Amino acid sequence: MRILLVEDHLPLAESVAQALRGAGLTVDVLHDGVAAEHALASEDYSLAVLDVGLPRLDGFEVLARTRARGKVLPVLMLTARGEVKDRVHGLNLGADDYLAKPFELTELEARVKALLRRSVLGGEAQQRCGALVYDLGTRRFSLHEQVLSLTSREQSVLEALIARPGRVMSKEQLADQVFGLDEEASADAIEIYIHRLRKKLEGNAVRIVTFRGLGYLLEAVSD
Ligand code: CA
């Protein structure tokens, strides 16, 4: 899953990004409100962590403009200001959660996971497709209760597929989920990950189906 982190305090941005990447997420990091607004308008994120005090455009304004575009992704606001009126203001603008600085990285990570679980998995702790089970708490896939060993790229592709049951995902949509802003997004690489995933899923009553020219879909095999 790909998320956006917007924080102008560089050491804090770096440590938060590292913690979230350690949890297996693809994280884009931006440091000002204008860049954040553009990225939120053009990229497909599963969640945003948004600082309130940002150069060029503050976090409240970024949030308001993003919601005005009809974007419903979960947004966790970060702020140094602990005042109730700021918290209420953020929530009124459509923030989903709020964390006051200073905070523990483990708390931020737990809240991000909770928001993702609510939005991406519709509140379920687990997502299932035939014998394949995805646990968002541990971020692990298992097949017949055996943990499936995946690289982080393979993991991102499979997460994107299992989060959208019955929907075809194009190579470009998958690449958007797998590669960050500073990486070369390659639709060809997606073919390689799909090939490897197919090998790992082989013979387990779940498969990735190709729709030529359209993309891929994950489905349970019934026989
Ligand atoms: Ca700030």
From TrEMBL:
Residues 2-116 form the Response regulatory domain. CDD domains: REC_OmpR_PmrA-like, trans_reg_C. SUPFAM superfamilies: CheY-like. It holds the Pfam family Response_reg. Residues 124-220 bind DNA. Residues 124-220 form the OmpR/PhoB-type domain. InterPro entries: CheY-like_superfamily, OmpR/PhoB-type_DNA-bd, Sig_transdc_resp-reg_receiver, WalR-like, WH-like_DNA-bd_sf. GO terms for biological process: regulation of DNA-templated transcription. GO terms for molecular function: phosphorelay response regulator activity; transcription cis-regulatory region binding. GO terms for cellular component: cytosol; protein-DNA complex. Coiled coil: none annotated. The modification 4-aspartylphosphate is found at residue 51. Keywords: DNA-binding, Phosphoprotein, Transcription, Transcription regulation, Two-component regulatory system. This is Response regulator. It comes from Aquipseudomonas ullengensis.
